[in-house]
Amino acid sequence: MVHVVKVAPPYSLIFIADPEGGNTPECSPPAPYWATSSCIAVGCLMYQDGDTEVCLGQMHEMRPKGRPIFDGLLETPNRKVNVETAEGELVLQADVSAESTRVRIWTNASKEPDKIIIGLG
Q1: What domains lie within the chain, and their CATH numbers?
Q2: Measured between alpha carbons, how far is residue 62 from residues 2, 26, 39, 105 in Å?
Q3: Digitized pLDDT (tens) for each residue of the chain, 121 residues in all
């Protein structure tokens, strides 16, 4: 099932990681994302400018267009993927089947996107 939420996260960042967290990447502009093996940070629309739509689901349920900005593996020892704000507020969560999960991310802009699609598997 694909989950969708609109959020204006503080610091204009969302973090994708196992519920236990991970090694947070150092986020310094202008990159659209930053990643370690256990955490992915993605920049989004400035929170003062409005909401960012975030979609999370299994890859076979998604139909994004174009090339992803990120395509890699994420450590998921608890077999869950959380999407959180920089302040640790849970935005979305999905179950995954393995302790390492392929994650693909699409955005509708390279800087301050207001739509982020996260495909798992």
Answers
A1: 3-21+31-120 (2.60.34.30)
A2: 8, 29, 22, 11
A3: 899 999 999 999 999 999 998 899 988 877 899 999 999 999 999 989 999 999 999 999 988 889 999 999 999 999 999 999 999 999 999 999 999 999 999 999 989 999 999 999 9
